[in-house]
Amino acid sequence: MPIQYYIYLCLALFSIGIVGVLTRRNAIIVFMCIELMLNAVNLLLVAFSKVHNTMALAGDKTSMIGIEAQLFVFFIMVVAAAEVSVGLAIIVMMYRNVHSLDINFLNRLKN
Amino acid sequence: MNISQFLFYFLTVLALFSAVMVVVSKNPVHSVLWLIAVFFAISGHYILLNAQFLAIVNLIVYAGAIMVLFLFVIMLMNLNASTEPQKNNWLKLAGVIAGGCFMMVLVSLVKQANELNNIAVTMGSGDIGLIKNLGKALFNDFVVPFEISSVLFLSAMVGAVVIGKKA
Questions:
Q1: Fewer CB in 10 Å around end: N or C, chain A?
Q2: CATH assignment of B3-129, given 3.90.1150.10, 1.20.120.1200, 1.10.10.10, 1.10.260.40?
Q3: What is the least distance, in Å, from the CA of A24 to any CA of chain B?
Q4: Looking at the predicted complex, does its ipTM rise above 0.85?
Q5: pLDDT tier at A57 (50, 70, 90 boundaries)?
Q6: Taking residues B105-115, what's their average pLDDT?
Q7: Rounded to two decimals, what is the model's pTM?
Q8: Which of A81, A21, A5 has its CA nearest to residue B69?
Q9: How far apart are CA B43 and CA B37, in angstroms?
């Protein structure tokens, strides 16, 4: 598979996430679209790690080049899990206060 | 077309279709279920790239834990399709155009990058995704970020409890 295919796939997933963030007003769905964008980036990191590992394996049979990217993906997942727990707590609090998930209610700070 | 190429196209179509369905579904519960389908497709991609550990972690953490959290919150709030606020159609169209322009710019950028031309991703080989090698790297070179992430989790836990409790 050429690397471009993976780049196009990840770009498409990321753009779908952006469109979701821009077009939906439900806070939970906006949040899910952010998760989608994070996953697109993760997939691209893994694909590039694979490419670099394949290149390095041509010279050195036991090369471990590219393993850092997979650990980055691991840490991104860690941060995403922490982010989701706090974000959902914020959404629950917002629902308790305004009884709606519409993100347009969050413009109160403006006044 | 061999089997891994076929699987690549199948998983790509599945991921893109499910991602579109996440955005266009009216019912938030359906959105969550489609998002789980996206995560399964991405895990399949990880397996094709020989990143077995990440595939399993993706399934357990994302499709397992995070999505259950989302489902819990949605069911806690008793949402249904009729309470979903709608943006007006012009704003939706503007959002779609903005996202489409973003994608168009980046796709044309990738098309022009000649450096990427002869780089291929070989599937089904390599062993950097195995848990043995990842564990060695994680506990030798990445011990400090690993420990810091435990502090991050602790603070996230405390933050979630403090925000979530009845004030």
A1: C
A2: 1.20.120.1200
A3: 7
A4: yes
A5: confident
A6: 89
A7: 0.90
A8: A81
A9: 10
